[in-house]
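User: Okay, second chain of the day. Same drill as before: sequence in, structure tokens out.
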Amino acid sequence: MSLVSTYVESREGNWYKLPIIKIKESNWFVCWDDDEPIELVYRIVLEPQWILAYLRKEGWDVDFTSEPEKQGLRSFDGNFHAAGRVFLTQKAGPPDSLLNADALLPERPDCQGVFYYNSNNGWR
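Assistant: Same drill. Structure tokens below.
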């Protein structure tokens, strides 16, 4: 549960507030949180390695940082199903094409929150 807002910088340098990567009618999504790494949540019937390959094909340099684990029931398109999760690390921010446009901000936010951004030491 997030206590503060999460902000993500895309590979192109745009900023998003509380973004989610979800392909329409898919059984998985990626979310950012204030107290955990980037998280891929997926319906158990899917293979997380396939989703990782899809994200890379779409231009996001990302990798697993944990082993997939069962998480209980999660809602996918309004129905609850057995779900799993795996944490991710990024070597570059996600491309704008993967992020939900309704979360796009006009500029870098100047407020409190958790920021995933490009620094001199790499992506955080």
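The chain has one domain: 6-123.

User: Thanks, on to the next one.
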